[in-house]
Amino acid sequence: MSESPKSALVTGITGQDGCHIAELLHEKGYEVHGLIRGQNNPRKAAVEAEFPFVNLIEGDLTDPAALMRAMDIANPDEVYNLGAISHVGYSFKNPTLTADVTGKGVLNVLEAVRATGRAESTKVYQASTSEMFGGLDYNRPGAGYNEDSLFHPRSPYGVAKLYGHWIAKNYRESYGMFVSCGILFNHEGERRGKEFVTRKITDAVARIHLGLQDHIELGDLWPKRDWGYAGDYVRGMWQMLQHDTADDFVLATGETHSIEEFLQLAFAEIGIDDWRPYVKQNPAFMRPAEVDILLGDPTKAEKVLGWERKVDFPGLVKLMVAHDLEQQRAGLPSA
Ligand code: NAP
Ligand code: F7E
After folding, report:
1. Statement to judge: residues 182 and 216 lie in one domain
2. Is the CB of 220 under 6 A from ligand 2?
3. Is residue 1 one of the residues assigned to a domain?
4. Does the CB atom of residue 196 touch ligand 2 within 6 A?
């Protein structure tokens, strides 16, 4: 007798990771449901066209009743809570909204699982972040942050995520719920929003190459990030929910690179060795507090889950520039 397919509910279905995980879950035979907000979400048509197999359910992370309704429709074996106000710079300008969506939204999801009687049957993935750390790990200099490192968030986004992280752990400990938190370092790719620095750069590089713009305006160029590929990271999310116990896992590359290094590689893809004449600094893109350097240690995920990465840093830059050149040549919109 064939088993009925597993069901998954993905919040943040219109975002970068939501798209990657929808694809992965569909390949694995899941019935995929996606929470979509707003009465006329501008990304709805694109999701429907690219992922016709996803059942979109209207609902907002700030609305507990909508989340309970979504649980009843999807009856999920697994919930991937990826929805959030996720832009660090934006969170400084909209701190209350960020607290409501990125922080309290996690509580609303967990309560919706519990209130609909699914505490024992539904597993939850919580999208925690390296932004909860906030800089160098002075306790383990050079080794990178791991699951035991201290938190010191430096933005309203990081603070809201830390609430989400701890309430997720609290529901695991208090109610025995299977709630796993992935503490993910930056992950990028062809689906990254153009408001984030990597995609902003690769989009501009493609347009500069085709004569569609002549420079790019950026904020600080010295910060360093541990940048991986989103496709590799959503595989890790799925692996966390297949593990026999709920836990916290860092996903990272173990390498850190500055924005200047990213610029160097991206411009080299179009044959430009010196990127400096094409970059102007604009204080509008600087933040009230910056996270200088992030470096993660993914040893636990590698050993316990068998997680591995397929794309390295130069490979990531290459695939993003190639994608944006193709998109610009096809005349697709830049934003
Ligand atoms: P993203 O592209 O910015 O997507 C965010 C998603 O959240 C979008 O689908 C957005 O929907 C949705 N959303 C925003 N407000 C909402 C609300 N009030 N109700 C319901 N949905 C709402 O983010 P991502 O890069 O895919 O990241 C996925 C998750 O991982 C996020 O929680 C992020 O904070 C976290 N994370 C990301 C990284 C990274 O490097 N990418 C690293 C660590 C953690 P709309 O389309 O309607 O705006
Ligand atoms: O900034 C600097 C900026 O916005 C990276 C989110 O997915 O990863 C992401 O957060 C760095 C920062 O990502 C511009 O100041 C310079 O130092 O691409 P970003 P982020 O802040 O690291 C973490 C792990 C998450 O969890 C978040 O959800 O680049 N920077 N000039 C700029 N950043 C942007 N966006 N735009 C600029 O023009």
Report:
1. no
2. yes
3. no
4. yes
* Cα gap 162→156, rounded to integer Å: 10
Query: Which residue has the least CA distance to atom 34 on ligand 2?
Result: 197
pLDDT tens digit string along 37-67? 999 999 999 999 999 999 999 999 999 999 9
Please state, as a whole number, how many other Cβ atoms lie within 10 Å of the Cβ of residue 198. 21
One domain, residues 128 and 270: no
From CA 277, how far away is CA 275, in angstroms rounded?
6
> Does 129 participate in catalysis according to the annotation?
yes
Which residue among 61, 79, 82 has the greatest number of ligand 1 atoms within 8 angstroms of its CB, and so is best to mutate?
82
> In the chain, how many domains are there?
2
* pTM confidence score: 0.97
Whether residues 218 and 236 share a domain: the answer is no
Contact 61, 11 (CB under 8 A): yes
pLDDT in tens, 250-271: 999 999 999 999 999 999 999 9
Q: Same domain for 128 and 264? A: no
